[in-house]
Amino acid sequence: MKKWFVIALLSVMMLCTISAQAENTKIVFWHSMSEEAGTLMDSYVKSFNETIGKEQGIEVEAVFQGTYAESVTKMNSVLSAGQDETLPDVLQLDATGKVSYLAAEAAYTVDEALKDHPETDLSGMLAPAMSNWSLSGVQLGLPFATSTTVLYYNKTALDAVGAQAPDTFADIAALAALISTEGDTVIYASVPNTPTLANWLGQIGSNLVNYHNGSEGTADALDCLENGALVTFLTEWKNLYLSGALSNTSGSTDAFVAGKQLMMTSSSSNVASLLEKVGDTFEVGVAGYPRVNAGAAHGATVNGSCLVMFDHSEAKKNAAWTFIQYLTSSEIQADFARGTGYIPSNQKATESDVWKELVKEFPQYEVALTQLMNTPDTMRSVTVGPSADFYYAIMNDMTDYLDADMSPDEGADLMAEDLGGLLEQYKRANQ
User: Fold this and answer.
1) CA-based nearest residue to 299, from 363, 361, 375
2) Element holding 91 (H helix, E strand)
3) Torsion angles phi and psi, residue 205, rounded to 5
4) What are the C-alpha distances in Å from 177 to residues 171, 174, 181, 240, 293?
5) Looking at residue 381, what is its pLDDT?
């Protein structure tokens, strides 16, 4: 009898051990990092699984979902179909997915995670980056790939004519008298879109849309008309175009690398790749985002992406919370910044030897962080429901404004009709 009891007890213990091993929590992570950033992301997931994950019984399966837009489209499709169980545990989300994520019953926000884990200390996170992922008073996620828009310029070409990095539209316009644009060479090429237009309007004290650019409620109207900010911007933009220094095209990184485009405004996350692509061909300069005029404030809003979670089992939510804290740790953020050009989302990363050595050798990396910390707190990136349509409508209207030689008032009327119509249509469809 005793022998049978011992055998039975051993059997129970073995079953418990097998059960415990089976309780290792596997979570799925959808991300949009490709090329060098994708390689780094794969290495971080592998490192997590081999260290913290192994210690805590967590395994992360990383799945590349294409661009941010493609990933958000897939998330929205799953939500619309009511198949919440097929959502990932962690998702890398950009601004186009803010509204639908907040509205989703399956969302497990950072605010909810902090209630479940009150011992968590997020004081080291970069404040502007954190605030960018707050919508209607709710902290959606933790910032991972943080960037802002900066000016890249061919320093070698500007040095040759004795010119400094431009600070305002007027400074860019002045280059037309110093630099020949014969052939296919252009000084500056740009067509404003949602984030860039919001930056320039923010510099002159205005939001693009109401409810503080949609950060405090669902935007349903333009907020830059009655205060005259849009007309002011359009006036300065057309003056720049008429100077001959602005090409009414989006331009391209390839043209910049080839020396055919002397400056471009683009994400600070491109620093590493641009330095590598240009090599010794010319010196790449990085400067702050150009100001609309001398009276405008310096700065540009936060761009990039954050890490959000979904409301699955308690074990999966706990594992997801552990994983996103790992990706936003100072060590990972310093390494990610070094390998890409993204701004460290963790303030402590900027105190590390990795960061200090990086900016000492390549001061171009530090421009974005300095700009972000000096950008007025009142400037917010834009969150609207019809984000994709809104983005392209701005580009189309800005192109038509210059091509059709409209007056600033006519350009403002065109944008008021097109953009206001999109906001109104979205509002009616989602009431």
Assistant:
1) 375
2) strand 90-93
3) 80, 25
4) 11, 6, 10, 13, 19
5) 87
Q: What is the DSSP string of 191-237?
A: ---HHHHHHHHHHTT--SBHHHHHTSS---SBSSSTTSHHHHHHHHH
* DSSP string covering 303-358: EEEEEEEE---HHHHHHHHHHHHHHTSHHHHHHHHHHH-PBPSBGGGGGSHHHHHH
Question: How far is 342 from 271, CA to CA, in rounded Å?
Answer: 8
Q: Which domains does the chain have, with CATH numbers?
A: 2-146+303-373 (3.40.190.10), 148-302+377-429 (3.40.190.10)
Please compute, for residue 401, the number of CA atoms within 13 A of its CA located in the half-sphere on the CB side. 32
Question: Across the strands, what pairs with 58?
Answer: 25
Alpha-carbon Rg for the chain in angstroms: 24
Q: How far is CA 92 from CA 30, 44, 73, 97, 199, in A?
A: 6, 14, 13, 10, 23
Which residue type, as a one-letter code, is found at position 133? W
Q: Across the 431 residues of the chain, what is the mean pLDDT of every consecutive 10-residue run? A: 40 37 83 94 97 97 95 95 95 92 96 97 92 92 96 97 97 95 88 94 95 90 96 98 95 93 94 94 97 95 94 97 97 94 94 94 94 86 90 97 98 97 91 73
